[in-house]
Amino acid sequence: MTTTTLAVLVPLFPFLGAAAGLLLGRRSPGFTRPLAVLPTLAATVLAVLVAVRQGGGRPISASTQLTPTGSVPVDLALYLDGFAVLVAVLVGVVASCVQIYSTAYLRDDPRYPSYAALVSLFTSAMLLVVYSGDLMVLLVGWEIMGICSYFLVGHYWETPEARAASLKAFLVTKLGDVPFLFGLFALAVDAGTFRITGILGAVATGAIEHPTLVALLLLAGVAGKSAQFPLHTWLPDAMAGPTPVSALIHAATMVAAGVYFVARLLPVFAASAAALTVLAVMAAITMAGAALAALAQDDIKRVLAYSTISQLGYMSGALAVGDRGAAVFHLLSHGAFKALLFLAAGVVIHAAGTNSLAAMSRMSGLAQRIPDAYWTMTIALLALVAIPPFAGFFSKEAVLVAAERTALGESAVAPAAAGWAVLVSGLLTALLTAAYATRLWLLAFRGRAPRLPTTAGSPWR
C-alpha cells in the first residue's frame, strides 16, 4: 500500500468511526466504545507508518481535482513533510488516550455515544487540516473543528455555564474566521491556486501583491482558533466541558490548528515585516498576560487553560522570529505534557470532588490517595516549568534562543523589534509559569486539613 493511500486512511478511519457511532450508538450500546477507540487507534498506527515512510525526507505530494471551480481550482491534495507527519502522530496519540480515558470518565453518561462520535469527528477534522495540501480542503477541517467544539464544550448543556461557554467558543472563533476566509481568497487570487505548494512558489517569486494585508487577515483567524490576544477569552470558559475534551482541544487539536497554519505558510507571513511584528506583539501580550491570569485562578482547569494560552504565545513568538523548527518543537512537547496535565487533573477532580484549589488545599492525603495522578501531574508540571531534562526545557530554550538571535540582528527574516518583544516577554513568562505551576502543585497536593481546637482534657488532643 502506498504512503499516499495510508495517509488518506488516517483521517478517514475516525470519520467512519464517528458515522458508525452515531448510527449504532443508541440501538447497539455495546458497539459504542469499540467504535470510539478502535478507529482512532488504527488511525494512529497508520499515522506512525506514514511518518516512518516519509522519514523526514522530501515532501510527498498527491492531488486530484474535485470539480471545476473557475479560475482557481480546488484540489483534494495531500502534502506530507516531516512537520505534517509528526503533528499527525501527536494528534492520533492524544486522541486515542482521550477516547480510552473517556470510556471510564463518562461511563454512566447517557450521551456518551454522541460524545464519542463528536470526538472522533473532531479528530478526523484535525487530521484533515494536518495532511491537506489545499487551503479550501484545510478550511473544511478547520470549520468542522469549530462546529464540534460547540457541541463538545456544551456537553453538559443542562448547566448555564456550559451553554454560555459553547456559544462563546463558537462566536469568538467565527469572529476570527470571517477575515480569515477573506485572507484565503485574497491569497488564492494572487497566487492563482489554493494549493499550498503553489502559494509558497508564488511567495518566492514575489507574486503576492498585498502580503501585509493578506497576512493580517489570516492572523485574525489564527488568533481566534489558537486563543491568542485579543480573541483568547473563549478558551478558559471552555473548561465547562468534560475534562477529556479539554485535553483534546488544548493538547493536540483545535488550538494547535492556528499555530500549525502559520507554520505551514510561514513564508507568506515572512514576506511582511509588519505582519511579523504584529504577530510578535500579539504573542508577547498573550504569553505574559495569560501567565499572570493563571496566578489568579482558583479552578484547577482554568489554571491549565490560561497555561495553554500562554504556551501558545511561545509558539507564536517562535514563528514571529521566523523559526518554524522551534515552534513545532514546542508544539509537540506542549501537546504531550498538557495532555498529561488535563487527564491527571480529571482524576484529581474526581478524587477531591471539586475543581477548587482552595478546597483541595484544605484536604490532606490527596497525593497518597491517587499516587499515579500525583506523579503524572508532577512530571508534567516539571516539563511545563521547563526543568531539565524534560522536553519543555529544550523546546522553550529553542524559542528563546531564536528570539535572542533575532533581537541581536542575526536573523534575515524578522525585524529586531520582534525578537526583543518575544525575548523579554518569554523570559518574564518563564518565571510566571514557575510561579503558577508551583502554586497549583502545592495547593492540590500539599494541603493540610484544619486542626480542630482541643481542650486540656480532650481525648482528641
Share of residues in strands: under 5%
Uncertain runs are: 451-461
What's the overall average pLDDT, rounded? 88
**Strand order across the largest sheet:** 1-2
Given helix and strand content, the structural type is mainly alpha
- Rg: 22 Å
The separation of the N and C termini measures 74 Å
User: Any idea what the shape is?
Assistant: globular
Number of helices: 20
The share of residues in helices is: over 70%
Largest sheet: 2 strands, antiparallel
Number of strands: 2
General description of the model:
The chain is mainly alpha-helical and 461 residues long. The protein is 73% helix and 3% strand. Strands 1-2 form a two-stranded antiparallel sheet. Strand 1 and strand 2 form a beta hairpin. Helix 11 runs antiparallel to helix 15. It is globular and about 65 Å long.
What would you say about this model in short?
With about 450 residues, this protein is mainly α. Helix content is about 75%, strand content about 5%.
SSE order and pairing:
Layout: H1 3-24, H2 32-54, E1 60-67, E2 74-80, H3 82-105, H4 112-131, H5 135-153, H6 160-191, H7 196-204, H8 211-225, H9 234-237, H10 243-251, H11 254-264, H12 266-270, H13 273-295, H14 300-320, H15 324-352, H16 357-361, H17 366-369, H18 371-385, H19 391-407, H20 416-445
Antiparallel strand pairs: 1-2
